[in-house]
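Honest question from a wet-lab person: if I give you the sequences of every part of a complex, can you actually get the arrangement of the whole thing, not just the pieces? Trying it with mine:
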Amino acid sequence: MARKPTETAAPAASANVSRDELLKYYRDMLLIRRFEEKAGQLYGMGLIGGFCHLYIGQEAVVVGLEATARDGDKRITSYRDHGHMLACGMEARGVMAELTGRIGGYSKGKGGSMHMFSREKHFYGGHGIVGAQVPLGAGLAFADKYKGNDNVTFTYFGDGASNQGQVYETYNMAELWALPVVFVIENNQYAMGTSMKRSTRSTTLYGRGEAFGIPGEQVDGMDVLAVKAAGEKAVAHCRAGNGPYILEMMTYRYRGHSMSDPAKYRTREEVQKMRDERDPIESVRNLLLTGKHASEDDLKSIDKEIKDIVNDSADFARESPEPPLDELWTDIYADDAPQKTAEDVNV
Amino acid sequence: MATEILMPALSPTMEEGTLAKWLVKEGDTVKSGDILAEIETDKATMEFEAVDEGTVGRLLVSEGTQGVKVNTPIAVLVADGESADAAPQGSAPQAAEPLAQPGQGEASKDETGEAPERAPAAAKSAVEQVSTPEPDESPDWPEGTTVRQMTVREALREAMAEEMERDETVFLMGEEVGEYQGAYKISQGLLDRFGPRRVVDTPISEMGFAGIGTGAAFGGLRPIVEFMTFNFAMQGMDHIINSAAKTLYMSGGQMGCPIVFRGPNGAAARVAAQHSQDYAAWYAAIPGLKVVQPYTAADAKGLLKTAIRDPNPVIFLENEILYGRSFDVPQMDDFTIPFGKARVARKGRDVTIISFGIGMAHALEAAEKLAGDGIDAEVLDLRTLRPIDYPAILKSVQKTNRVVTVEEGFPVGSIGNHLSAWIMENAFDWLDAPVINCTGKDVPMPYAANLERLALITADEVVEAVRKVTYR
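Yes, you can. This is the full assembly:
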């Protein structure tokens, strides 16, 4: 049922990929990279507080999977969520302003880096408790199945969350009830500072689904085309009513777990090697250049365009005011104000 | 254009640090991601990466400098081709003022230099509306309505069936709710009537199905999640508190969670410590939850229907011992009871006994005994613990000037503790005696029958407390 990744997946997939597609992946991944670098910078300046978990290095996972989603599909993830939001089309301004705790943020400044949502883009958070998003994601899929549509929910979690018991309670029920959920394990190999080797003897994470009858596979998560190809298969499986599917994305985060992580659990050389040899953005850049899909100048102008978006988001995030003080007391109960619960229910 | 590189904050609490080591020198070209320096924070030594690309024009702070304030310029980066001399020398425009996060320490003053005004005081708590001192004392159902004797069990079942009939998005999930017909037979017959799509048997996975239910509520359904008992809800507590109760707030109002978590709560009989606990005070402590603990069958029905329609997460605390007791229930097409409306179960003038749930049984029994001795007790059934009907409490205290609270839960951090504090703050001048809290004893529930009796609250203890506050 589960199988090993095919080494040749990427080149095979790249043969069929269009110029526009490659440019889109390049642009989307670069936006996340530059956005996160800027967030790191604003954190350093004290404009972003608390915890801030950067997605740098893992961009191909979310960009490749978003390429397989269609309107109505949902996504939910952990606290390392900025990339997921940008990839599903949420505005850089709203995300950055939430990081700075301003009224222009997606949660009016009340959620912060780890807690952002967009009903419009079907992004259901942004969850700060490791593993909690897994049953929540299955619940979103439960709602879609109940309503009788064929939407799919992408439920992202890490190798660290894979050791939470609720993941397996969820696997069991998701398969039992054939819920349309793609479980995406972003295996960046470190649960905060604890490497896979030091946390489990069962290091093939997708294989843990076999105990519940859930098919899955390991995917090169640094290769956006491989991610997309695997995602298409998983989504087709779920949409057809066959229940959940597990994708274990082998990926890597370049930065620390959060901003205050000195990263002494791995060597600088290990990080540098990944950056030099496996960078997901550089790979697509090379495909674009070697395939003569784009010139250096074309890419430079994309770089400029992205830089402008990110700088604009940072300006917005600095200028947007802090929430008015009466916001302290709003949004505690839905009946305080008109709210949209069940607006999209159509059973 | 020259860019200043500022001393970064590398942890949530860092205000200054030591520039331990430069890993670049003047004239080096750097690109985004290159490590510029090692910086010692209050927690650890961190590597500091470049964000922009360019050439290091000047290093402004030398290696080994201690106490470098966050946001002090430490180097200048120049664009390719630009001369390092173009870099400004040291003093930076925005560096003098530490850019601490607004709302912290010095920076907590707003732009006008005034200390920030306090948040509006009117809403001291989202559920405390003391501004309306007159309690709603309208009857729960119109006079002349036909009533029928019904058990609490039947009332709960009718409430769920009626709401499932009314709203297709309402469904029931939990352990043994379907084919087994309910561990306590609350859901008896619902599977036959509504089918397995809407009456969902779960495996024994409280954390998992508390989370799946919460996710389904985010997704637009109205789940009723039954815990076989609330003792097992502790396994799913993270989803009740962190996922269900807080998400509306954390999302700036975007993500409602209309869900009911219900099941028996509190001591049954002879099931010992792990299966005998009243969680009322735990849940009532959480902003974002609504908490209901009915005593009568009519309240069980009317409040459960309200709970299912409520757009917020509702904790509905039932009681196994009460399931089989019968009460009058009005025969109406659509009978609901609003949250936050207490019920005067017995009118009196000498003392107010405030209770809820099964505590009401002890309170009423005590009131009868006291009446025989000429003490006329008023008994107030709170029915909901979030929101609490403070106006009703205030009105009764102003009449009787004496209060005893009754509940089954542990004494420390009890609902009674909270009520005592509230009454002291808001009605101190009306009190003629200290408020006494009657609670369960401060021990895990014992198994032995005689010890169990000692651990539980009794009507006699309530009588004794009333004698103390009435000095009789």
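Two things worth pointing out. The mean pLDDT of chain A is 92. The two ends of chain A are 34 Å apart (CA to CA).
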